[in-house]
């Protein structure tokens, strides 16, 4: 059985760190915590789990801190998490099996990263990350913000999920790091350009965000999944200011990078629905229901677009088109995923009044 070092970087995480470590303390053989300047009870709480606590002077570089944490590991494999991540009980059990049975020739194990859940407890947004890596390969983190672990070799995809449970939000931290780097004339990679665009967008600095998003797309150096996500963001923005044709342009552009995604089809459907073009909207929502999610993709997925949402919207479209039977059928399909959704329950009463059981 392999041994595992857990490596984390933290700062002022007293609200979450104990929850995180408690969820996986029995899975790892060593816990290494690198503190980048806490002035709360973080270290005191961490001491309940490990004595391997190291200070690291913060230099506006997440990769530097993570690489330092990795340098302190001594076990076969390194697991990394953030303080507001947890492993749920079912994932703890799956992780135990992985640890007992992992082939030592494996260089990295990816795990799903669940970033959000809907009000019914269903995962609403997820993607994959290299999460457990062989220590002797000396894999390095790259990027001062929104860093990534550069991994190669024998990589396997597991069904284990890490669940993100953010409590606090540091609104301007990353934005300010990027702005300081620009002041120092740091050279941005295409990835830096993308994530700076994301920070600008999240802070509603839309004109600047669009500039960097288009610069990223025009570079033609982006990962296809990132290109698709940027197109989705641009569609979202232009739709919010009622520029439907411009919004649709970016959803169609996303098809250049890979097979159509349900998210883009739902965006197109909604765009036409807003214009009361019900046949057009139904076409795109139907398309969303027929797509197969790319297997083992590392992209971001809005699970509702791949399950219940297009069916709920098809219920609306076909009802407006006068095909009540088909509208009823799609509402029933949607109800299989989110049976207690208030819109679906409202529709059920509506169809019952029309004689549908």
TrEMBL record:
Pfam families: Glycos_transf_2
Database matches in InterPro entries: Glyco_trans_2-like
Domain Glycosyltransferase 2-like: 5-134
Coiled coil: none
Alphabetical list of PANTHER family matching this protein: GLYCOSYLTRANSFERASE, POLY-BETA-1,6-N-ACETYL-D-GLUCOSAMINE SYNTHASE
This protein's name: Glycosyltransferase family 2 protein
Organism of derivation: Clostridium thailandense
